[in-house]
Design goal:
Order of helices and strands of chain B: HHHHEEHHHHHHH
Helix content of chain B: over 70%
Number of strands of chain B: 2
Strand order of the largest sheet of chain B: 1-2
Strand content of chain A: 15-25%
Number of helices of chain A: 12
Largest sheet of chain B: 2 strands, antiparallel
Largest interface: A-B, 38 and 40 residues
Largest sheet of chain A: 7 strands, mixed
Radius of gyration of chain B: 19 Å
Distance between the termini of chain A: 76 Å
Helix content of chain A: 40-55%
CATH topology of the largest domain in chain A: Rossmann fold
Number of domains of chain B: 1
Shape of chain A: globular
CATH superfamily of the largest domain in chain A: Response regulator
Structural class of chain B: mainly alpha
Number of strands of chain A: 15
CATH architecture of the largest domain in chain A: 3-Layer(aba) Sandwich
Radius of gyration of chain A: 22 Å
Shape of chain B: globular
Number of domains of chain A: 2
CATH class of the largest domain in chain A: Alpha Beta
Strand content of chain B: under 5%
Structural class of chain A: alpha/beta
Order of helices and strands of chain A: HEHEEHEHEEHEHEHEHEHEHHHEEEE
Number of helices of chain B: 11
Strand order of the largest sheet of chain A: 8-7-9-10-11-14-15
Oligomer: heterodimer
């Protein structure tokens, strides 16, 4: 009796564990991101967006690859904003679910360890907002053949932030508050520092905290003592909101400047008045014309505003579909080859993939927080 | 010097939250002789109760606070009845209590993630009374957040009330007696079952208050129960089972953490916290002020 119960349980588990065989007219595309954790808002926005896009394509009969129509199926996993979990789910996507491509991987911290897995499995990954250079290029300078991204990279972002701080806002002494265990944060902070010092500025304090931290008073007190005239916080919106509030509670009233980790529907409601007048770099202008159709559709379907990640993952998925259409095939190597020559107009701008698998010449937007809104200030074009 | 004073104030402020949590933890330990790892989940639920009482039910702030404390107390008692009493009745070894506590904690945390959702929530500042709004008050050369002062005051009030209750009321003495020796006090006519419920209720209420304060200062999110670890270290540091010890341990732990963060680096902060824990357990397991106890499980 007992043996039979165990036998039945094992059989049930095996059935659950078996991924369904790919139906002949369905293409599976994987997605992973933080459905839970501090960045849950972004992960959920991405997931909602790719599912909305898949539903739209399928309602029109599917996507057309080499004359035949295929339905799109999104296979999602929660990486909990944790790099170990990201590696686990990536392995599951390529080996168990056998997806043809993966989009998402919004955090550099999660994308970097996943990159070699994609290369080995020969399944392309198009990252939405992972901006650290190591996502597509290894430390020794080799390009990961199967990894691409839809966004600009941090050396560029750091340069833009330093330029705005020095030239436009006339600040000369900067302090930096970064997340020490997040390569996005440490990388962007390093590029900002290099560019800022190159322009003639001085970084008077460089302080860090570990991700998940809720109390920033000790590092903020150090920053306060260094008397900067601007504070650069290259971190994710949740930490930024907390740090900003606590900074104001400590009597730190300097302007705060940030990167693309800031934009979120929740940023201002979490921070209250603490971020009034502060600025950050973004990948697009949410109020711009190109963003409106998707913004409206998302709002109608989900009742909430689309996040930055929605637009970026939209373009990442567009890149994959465009590659499949041009290659007239949907196996990993064919998609990978087509992705290398991507040249499309996404809703976040012109995406032309360069030799390092990054979009070349994407614009950066300086956004200011005014009351409950994020207002466009200035555009920075790669040419300048 | 100013930086030193500022960090001192930071440490005391953080310490007061740890104290509130550690005291509830220590109280349960003193009676039950096991570490209630589900305490953190009760703290988290207290924060959510307070948040929803304020935003959904639209209750005035003081009432919302009270409701949060009562609901958290209720959850703690429920936990005791459902999870721990069956084990006590069966005279289960202490290890089972710990496993059950951890299991309950994981269950509660994930239930919240599955139902309410994982996105952190913030107490809307419009609904908070003015003494809890954001902003700094300058005292000498040091800036203290208004909310930090208020939280410190609330914590002091709660802890003083607790100490008065334990030391000067009959029920308080009943708790002390049961903590000292459950069988002997039962022989003297004190109902141990009742005392246990009372202790869990008080611990739960304190957790509820701590949760709301923590949620107001930072955010309300399902993974809040991870703070239990800090309160555990603080309680062990000060002496498990001793209430003054829990308070002292919390303040000292917070001060050490803040000065390490401020003067060395934030990266070393948790390293120091855990080194202190290990050193305490090895050198003086009873903690700074604790009764000698061998079994810290």
């Amino acid at each position: 009796m007992r043996a039979m119960t165990i036998g039945l349980l094992v059989a049930a588990l095996a059935l659950v564990g078996c991924a369904g065989a790919q139906k002949s007219n369905t293409i599976k595309i994987g997605w992973f991101g933080p459905e839970t954790g501090d960045s849950a808002l972004w992960g959920q926005a991405e997931l909602n967006t790719v599912q909305m896009m898949a539903a739209d394509y399928n309602a029109q009969g599917g996507i057309d690859i080499g004359g035949k129509k295929y339905q799109l199926q999104i296979v999602p996993y929660d990486d909990k904003g944790d790099s170990t979990e990201a590696v686990n789910v990536a392995k599951r996507l390529v080996s168990q679910d056998k997806v043809v491509a993966v989009v998402g991987a919004q955090g550099s911290g999660e994308a970097i360890p996943v990159a070699p897995i994609m290369d080995e499995a020969k399944v392309p990954l198009v990252a939405s907002t992972a901006t650290n250079p190591k996502v597509t290029v290894t430390e020794s300078g080799q390009v990961h053949p199967y990894v691409f991204r839809a966004c600009f990279t941090d050396p560029y972002q750091g340069k833009v932030a330093a330029y705005f701080a020095y030239q436009r806002l006339n600040k000369r002494n900067a302090a930096i508050l970064m997340t020490i265990d997040d390569p996005y944060s440490t990388g962007l902070s390093q590029y900002f520092k290099e560019s800022f010092e190159q322009l003639g500025g001085k970084v008077v304090a460089e302080v860090s905290y570990t991700s998940g931290e809720k109390d920033f008073r000790a590092p903020l007190t150090k920053i306060k003592a260094a008397k900067p005239d601007i504070i650069f916080i290259p971190a994710y919106y949740n930490d930024v909101a907390l740090a900003a509030k606590q900074a104001r509670d400590l009597g730190i009233n300097q302007m705060l400047l940030g990167g693309d980790g800031w934009p979120s529907d929740n940023l201002i409601s979490l921070a209250g008045k603490a971020l009034e007048g502060c600025m950050f770099i973004n990948h697009l202008d949410f109020d711009g014309a190109e963003a409106q159709p998707m913004r409206d559709e998302y709002k109608a379907k989900y009742g909430k505003n689309a996040e930055l990640n929605s637009y970026m993952v939209h373009d990442a998925l567009m890149m994959v579909i465009d590659a499949m259409e041009r290659a007239k095939a949907f196996d990993g190597p064919s998609i990978q080859k087509a992705l290398e020559t991507t040249d499309i107009q996404g809703i976040t701008g012109h995406i032309k993939i360069g030799p390092e698998h990054n979009p070349v010449g994407k614009d950066a937007w300086l956004i200011k927080i005014v009351g409950p809104d994020m207002k466009f200030q200035e555009k920075f074009s790669a040419a300048s | 010097m100013n930086q030193f004073l500022q960090q001192l104030v930071n440490g005391l402020s953080i310490g007061s939250i740890y104290a509130l949590m550690a005291v509830g933890y220590s109280l349960v330990y003193s009676i039950m002789n096991f570490s209630n790892f589900a305490h953190g989940s009760v703290i988290m639920l207290g924060a959510y109760f307070g948040f929803f009482a304020l935003t959904l039910a639209g209750l005035p702030f003081a009432l919302a606070f009270f409701v949060a404390a009562c609901c958290a107390a209720g959850v703690a008692v429920l936990l005791e009845r459902l999870a721990y009493k069956p084990l006590r009745d069966r005279h289960a070894p202490f290890l089972y209590f710990i496993i059950t506590a951890m299991g309950a904690s994981i269950f509660i945390d994930n239930s919240v993630i599955a139902t309410i959702g994982p996105t952190p929530k913030t107490f809307p500042s419009e609904l908070l009374p003015s003494f809890l709004q954001s902003g700094a008050i300058r005292i000498g050369h040091v800036d203290v957040g208004r909310i930090d002062l208020a939280m410190f005051a609330i914590t002091v009030v709660c802890l003083v009330a607790l100490v008065l209750f334990i030391d000067f009321t009959r029920l308080g003495k009943a708790i002390q007696a049961t903590a000292y020796n459950m069988k002997a006090s039962a022989l003297m006519g004190i109902n141990p079952g009742f005392v246990i419920i009372l202790v869990f209720a008080i611990g739960g209420a304190l957790a509820g208050v701590a949760g709301v304060l923590y949620g107001m200062k930072y955010q309300v999110f399902p993974q809040m129960s991870a703070i239990t670890l800090k309160s555990f270290i603080a309680a062990v540091f000060g002496g498990l089972g001793s209430l003054p010890g829990a308070m002292l341990g919390s303040l000292l732990l917070a001060l050490i953490e803040t000065f390490v963060s401020g003067y060395l680096s934030t990266q070393y902060r948790d390293l120091f916290s855990f080194i202190i824990l290990i050193a305490m357990l090895v050198i003086r397991p009873s903690g700074i002020m604790g009764k000698t106890a061998e079994d810290k499980a």
